[in-house]
From TrEMBL:
Subcellular location field: Endosome
InterPro entries reported in the protein's UniProt record: VPS35L
Key words of the record: Endosome, Protein transport, Transport
PANTHER family: ESOPHAGEAL CANCER ASSOCIATED PROTEIN, VPS35 ENDOSOMAL PROTEIN-SORTING FACTOR-LIKE
Name of the featured protein: VPS35 endosomal protein-sorting factor-like
Gene Ontology CC annotation, any one: endosome
Superkingdom to which the source organism belongs: Eukaryota
A GO biological-process term: protein transport
UniProt record similarity statement: Belongs to the VPS35L family.
Amino acid sequence: MPTSYPWTTAKKCRRKNYVASLEVSTHPLKMDNMRITPSLNKTLMESLQNWSMPFEELDPLLRFEKMNVAEESLPLDICEDEKENYLKVWNCKKTSILNKYTTGEKLTIISSFLPGGEKISTFSALIRQVSNLNEKVKHRLEQLDDFDEASVRKTMGLSQQEFVTKVHMLDEEIKKAWDSEQRVNAFKIAIQCSKLLSDISVMQFYPSKFILLSDVLNNFGSLVFDRLKNKSFGNKNIKFQDIDPSTVLEIAKETCQNWLFKMASIRELLPRVYMEIALLQCNVFISREEMKPTINRLTNMIRGMGNPLVAIYIRVYLCNISSKLFGKESEPYYKDNLSEFINEYQQIFHPTMLKKYGAQLLTADQYLNLYVPAVDWLLFGTLNWNHDQLNLLEELLKKCNEIENSELLLCCIISAFDSSSVIQKSSAILDIIRKNADGMVMMHQALSSLGEHLCHAESYRQVSAEVLSQTWWKLASGMKNTANFLQVLEPWIQFACIQLSSQHINVILRGTIRYLIKSGQPPDNYSMQIQNVVKRILKHIPDVEELFLMDAFMPLVELVQTSAARTSMARTVLTVFFERNKSERIDDPIVIASLMRLCRIVHDSINAVSVEDESKWSGELIVRCIQAARHEDLDTQLNFYVECRAAFLKLDAVLVALVHAVNTLSTRGAASRGRWLQRACAAYCYITVPSLQCALSRATLYLLSGQVALLNNCIGQAEANFKALVGVIPNIPQYVQEDGQKKPTHDRVAGLISNFLSTLLVLPDNVDSNSKAYILSGFIKTLERVEWRKIDTLYYTTLLRVLDLLCEMTQEQYAYHIDSVISNDELYGAEEEFVKCLENYATNVCQELLVVLKALSDAKETKKQYSLSLELFWRIIKRGDLQQSSMSGLASNLWMLSQKLQDSNAKYAKSILTVLQGGDPAGRQLLEKLKVQ
C-alpha cells in the first residue's frame, strides 16, 4: 500500500440511500423468554422463593428481631385436634425467654456427674467394707434405692454460657447412662437437675434456667416412656393416644410401677413433683383414667411450694406436659393453675421475697417481670378454654380491683387478651391504673400494652379518644423514669395520630419536650426511644407533610445533640417521610426548609471514614429531597439549587442530581423572559461539574450540559462544556469502582464519544477562531494523548466515528439541525477552504487507521483486522469519491486484504457486494474492478 491516500469526500444527493439488509431469525431487541414448569405440589411463588433462598440468608443481627415479632404474633386460638400447636407456641416463647432473661452474675451448679467443683459430701455407703456375697447384694440394692448416695460436687463462679454448657453436659450424661444400661444413674442426674430449680440465688436468670432444665427433664421422661413402649409393643410406631392399658404386657406394667415407686421415694417435695410430672405420660401403661386426677392432685400439691417464683414455673411445667398429652383437653388445667396462682398471689409480695430480690439489687419491676412469662402462658391456655373473652376479662378485672398490688396480673391480662375486648374495657382499665398509680411499679408496661391495643381500633369516638388521651397523659407525665415515659408515649402517640387532630398531637409533643427538659437527664441517653416515637408519628399521621407545620415536631427531632444520634434521627425522618409521601413535588417552603435542615445533618456526618453504603444511602435521601422540592418562581428554584450545591459538596451523587435538575430547569424558562436564565443554568453546570471526583461522570455531565446549552442557543456555554469534555477524556480510567466491584468503562466511553461526535455536527464554529472545526480538531489531537493501545477496539472505533463526522460535515446540507442554531452547513455554505480543511483531517484519520491495521497484523489480531478492513472499505464506498484514483485504489487494497483474512462469517462482505451492485456507477465500476482482480 502507498504510504498516504488523500481523502476526497463524495457529495451526496439527498435521496433514499441503499443500505445493506441482513436476514436474521430473531429481532436483536427481543427478550428471551424463560419457560418455567411449576411443581404440582408447589405454587410458582413458593418455587421462586426456594430458588432465591440461598441468596437471602438472614442477617444474624436481625434474627432476634424476627424472634420478637414471632412472639408478638402468637395466636390466641388453636384448632381442636392440635397438640403440636401448643408445642410450637411454647417453642417460640422459649426462644424469647432465653434472649430476654440473661445475667452477668456468677452461677452455681451442683451435681455428682460433672468433673471438677468442690466436694461437699461423702457418704459412708461407698466406703463401707463388705465381706460376703449377701452383704454385697444388699449393698447394691441400697445404692439403687438411695438416690442421694454419691459424692456431690458444687461448681461455682460459672458464667451464663458455662452454665448452659454444663446443663447440656448433664443432658448428654443422661443419654450416655441410659444407653449403657445405667438407668439409675440417669434417674439420679434428672433428680439433681430438678433440685437446681429450687435455687433462686440469681433470680433474673431463673426463667431461662427453668427452660434449660425442663428440657432435660422432658428428655428423661421420653427415654423412660420409649423404653416402656418397646417392652410392651416392640418396634411398633404407636402414639400416646393409641395406647390401651389393657393391651400392655405385664412386664411393662411392672417396670412402670418400679419407676413410679422410685419417684415416690424421693424425700424432697420439689424434685418429687418435677419427676412425677416428667414421668406423667408413663401412667398410661397402668391406667389412663388415673392420669387426669393425678394432674389435679399435682395442681394442689404445688401449694406446698414456699417460693412463689418456683411454684409458678412448676405450674407452667405441669401445664406444658398436660397439653403435650391431651391437647385442648388440658386447657381446664391452665385455668385451674391460674386460679391457684391468683389465690396465692400475695405470696409474691411476702417480706422474705422482698429481701431476697433486694439483696440481689433487683428493682421491684425487674422482680415482677420474672413472673410475666409464666402468667402469660397460663392465660394463653385459659383464653383458649374460655371463648367468651369479654366476660372472662370482666371477671379478671374485678379480681384486680379486689386484690392489692394487682399490677403484675393487670399487665399480663392486658397483653394476653385480644384488642377488641381490651378496647371495650379500656376506660375501666385506665380507672384501675389511675386508682393504684401511686404504688405501681409496672404502670408503664400496663399503659404501654393498653396503648398498643387502642392503636388497633378502626374508629373511636372523638370525645372518648380525647378523654382517654387526657387520662393517660396525666398518668404518664407524673412518671419519674424517663425511659418508662417514652415507652408509654410510643403507642399512645400512634393512637393520637389515628384518632385525634393535629392540634392534639402538637400539644402532646410540646408536653414531651417539657418533660424531657425538666427530667434533668440528657435526651441523648434516650435517643433510640425518641427516634421510635418520631417514627411512629411519621408512619401513622394521615398527612405527613402537616407534621412539619407543627411548631413542636422539629424541636423534638433536634432535641438529641450528639452527632451519631442526630444523624440517625435525621435519616429515620427522611426515610419514613419519603416512604409515606407519594407526591412528586413539595411546594410548601416550611416543609422544604425542614427537610433541608435534616439533609444537612445527614450530609455533615459524612467523613473520610464513612463506609460506601452509608454515603450512598445519605446521597439517595438528599437527592429525593432535591428532586421533590419545587418553587413557583424559577429564580427562587435556581437559588435553591445554588444553596444545595454549597451545602452538599461531599456527595457526588447529589452534585450529579443537581446538574440534572438545573438542566431541566433551563428548559422550563420561558422565551419571553430572555436567555439569562438559560445562561445562568449553563454557568451553574459548568462550575459544578469539576467538583465531581469521577472523570467519567464529569465527561457525561459536560456533554449533557453542552447539549442543553446548545438546545437553548447558548453557543458560548455549549462550547465551554465541550472543550472541558475534550480535556477530561484522557483522564477517564479503564475501570471504575461501583458497588464494590471494578467495572470496565470502554463501552460507556464509546457511547459517550459517539454521542459527542453526533452533537458536534450541529455545533457552529466560533467565527473568532482561526481554526476550522476547532472543537473537533482539538478532540483529534486529544486522541494522540489518550492511553489507549492502537489495537484496542475503542481506539479504532472512535477513529471510524470521527471519519464519519468529517465526511458528513463536508456536505452542503447536514442530516439534522437544531431550531434557531445556525450550523456550519449554513455558516460556511460548503466553502472550499472549509471542505479542504476537513478532508485533510480525514486523510490523517484514514492514515492512522492504516497504521492500526498494520499493528493488528503484527499482534496476530486477525478477526479485528478483518473487521476493520471491511469497516474502512465500507466508508470509502459510502462516503469517499471513488472517481479519485487514491480512493478507488485504497478501496481495492482493503478489499483484497479482507479476502486474505476471510472470516467464517462472511455475511457482512456479501451485504457490501449486494449494495455495490445496486449503487451508483462508480460503485458498480469498482465492483467490476474487484471481480477482475
